[in-house]
Amino acid sequence: MSGKRNLIRSGTTVDQMVRAISDRIVTGFLRPGEKLDEASLAARFDVSRTPIREALSRLSAMGLVERRPNRGATVAVVTQEHLASMFESMAELEAICARFSAERMTAGERRTLEAEHQASARLVQLGVEEEYELFNTEFHTRLYRGAHSKHIYELTVMTRGRLAPFRRAQFMLPGRLAQSWQEHDAIVTAIMRGDSAAAGTAAKDHVSIVSEASAVFVIGDRPKGKAEPFPTSVS
Amino acid sequence: MSGKRNLIRSGTTVDQMVRAISDRIVTGFLRPGEKLDEASLAARFDVSRTPIREALSRLSAMGLVERRPNRGATVAVVTQEHLASMFESMAELEAICARFSAERMTAGERRTLEAEHQASARLVQLGVEEEYELFNTEFHTRLYRGAHSKHIYELTVMTRGRLAPFRRAQFMLPGRLAQSWQEHDAIVTAIMRGDSAAAGTAAKDHVSIVSEASAVFVIGDRPKGKAEPFPTSVS
DNA sequence: GCCGGAGCAATTGCATACACTTTTTGCCTT
DNA sequence: AAGGCAAAAAGTGTATGCAATTGCTCCGGC
pLDDT category, B172, cuts 50, 70, 90? Predict the structure, then answer.
């Protein structure tokens, strides 16, 4: 083997490959349906086929690539309907989490949720999308945890992960920040009241709106060819 | 390597290993928390470490084993709470499927569902548990498909798969067959009426009862040694 | 001219060898 | 005697080579 890639940052080789490949898929550098040849990928990243194989397995589990025995892997084709189906599932899952949170959150959890939520109002005023996005993720995670159900948590996080590529730009829509906060507010209020039904519907609506906001950014129908130069830093 | 293992049934080697290992986990031959040494397993099944590693990956994705980087794999420890959490999730997922089915099933799907359900009454009369179990699986699958949501379907099937080991013996309880049929009937009726709310609650109750019925067969706290032969009727 | 099968190229699956990480063991120091 | 450090042993992670499967091409037959 030729040069080491110590320059690149940490984690096991497989992790790096997972990141590298998933990045290339998510950004469209690798296009849906495209064949993923193990040898080529190995050569491209200057590693052996072994970690590539394992990375493809994981990506397959994540739903980003599809694998058929003895026939190699291809970039998963996510149809419009499948995407809608995922958002729909997400809405239902969030609704469950919100309902359970309304019923099961401890006093401490409720306090923190409310406090953080109120604090985030400042981020909206300042209009700092980057930071709000960060907070938003945390907020939802708090909701998932509040359900006190490990399996629901796993399902929800997994689904969110699969959707991540498709909702990058949701906060770029004007006024989305404030609206998001209002929707969060409805959820928080319901949870504080212990009104599980209200919390559920509020959460479901919240996701539905995000879904619509993201619907604009459909992937897959991009001009062929030189799918813009990738930020060359591997992983 | 020495002898071939053509005796064992087909599929790729990895598949065989997945089946072999998962069987041993499910039947308690490999006990929760037990370390799974790659080399030992490879020797035990007379294959190389490579397919063992991939099998462990898949089993990890299935939730049967836990893997930590550089620290090997262990048989997943399923706590009482986690099991409850999974059944709870299952109930919610089935409820979603039932609701969606009530709203979205085509006329043909409804017809088949009802017809098959009515036909299954005969199985109850005859008391053929084996066959009813088979039908039962099919019935639920029909429900999952009827939701017309690929992702919900995936989540549901996955959860059902994870629960499979824990609900083997549910139909061995006396009168369970007839009760199961009654519960199915409530679901079917609601779906035929297009009453999504009723279908949802009926489905949720159905799973909840199964959950309680299975609660007796808790795994994990078994006397050491020869982990008592599991109720041998597979699924 | 089209269909079918044998041979060949390409690619995946499996085996084995090597490298690195973690854990254990035993010795030395305090 | 207890604690800590170091070296070895055990075990996982990665690389590479070989076997097996798939898909394609080319030739012959109908």
Answer: low
Q: What residue is closest to D16 (Cα–C1')?
A: A48
Contact B149 A96 (CB under 8 A): no
A53 and B54: CB-CB below 8 Å?
A: yes
| Residues of chain A found within 8 Å of residue B57, distances taken between Cβ atoms | 54, 57-58
Q: How many helices (H) and strands (E) does chain B have?
A: 9, 3
pLDDT at B30 over 60: yes
Chain B contacts of A53, Cβ < 8 Å?
A: 54
φ and ψ of A4, to 5 deg = -75, 160
Which residue type is seen at A130? Answer: E
Asked if residue A224 lies in contact with residue A29, where contact means CB atoms within 8 angstroms, the answer is no
C1' of C11 to CA of A70 (Å): 8
**What contacts A173, CB < 8 A, 6 or more positions away?**
A213
Percentage of chain B modeled with pLDDT above 70: 83
Whole-structure pTM value: 0.83
Residue A111 has pLDDT above 90, yes or no: yes
B178-187: string of b/e by CB count within 10 Å (b at 16+)? ebbbebbbbb
Tell if the CB–CB gap between A54 and B57 is shorter than 8 Å: yes
- How many Å apart are CA A32 and CA A119, to the nearest integer? 40
Q: Is A67 helix (H, G, I), strand (E, B) or coil?
A: strand
Alpha-carbon dihedral of residues A144, A148, A154, A155, nearest 10 degrees? -70
Residue nearest to nucleotide D20 (CA to C1'): A70
Q: Do B81 and A150 touch (CB under 8 A)?
A: yes
pLDDT, position B80: 86
Q: Within 7 A of a protein CB, which nucleotides of strand C?
A: 11-17, 21-23
pLDDT band at B27; cut points 50, 70, 90 = confident
Cβ B39 to strand D below 7 Å: yes
Q: Give the pLDDT band (50/70/90) at residue B167.
A: confident
Helices (H), chain A: 13-26, 38-45, 49-62, 80-104, 107-126, 129-146, 150-163, 176-193, 196-214
In angstroms, the CA A38 to CA B195 distance is: 50
